[in-house]
Amino acid sequence: MLGKIKIVPTLGGYIAGSADGIVTVQGKPASRKIWLLDAQTMVVEQVVTSLRNGHYMFLGLDPAKEYLVMVRDYKKEYEPFVWDYVKPADDLTIAEQQALWQSWQTK
Description:
Layout lengths: L12 E5 L6 E2 L2 E2 L3 E6 L5 E6 L6 E6 L5 E5 L9 E6 L7 H11 L3
Antiparallel strand pairs: 1-6, 2-3, 4-5, 4-7, 7-8
């Protein structure tokens, strides 16, 4: 589930957890909430939950902005993990981004 997302169709930027960027707990893929904040204002832009396979995706982002991505452990066993000043990718069309997200649903 992508959660509540404000997707602006004219903005094709995205941030996705794939390869080494998936959410893990003790080295195994995990489902956790992930916050996306504007790196300048620290305003929360989106909150999503990663899939059980650790993949996540934030869509409809401004490729010119920088973001802070933070995942927290609801079990309170681990400190939050944060990626700061993340620039969205814009190498995929919106249709390709949606297809990528759908491909992760079955993994």
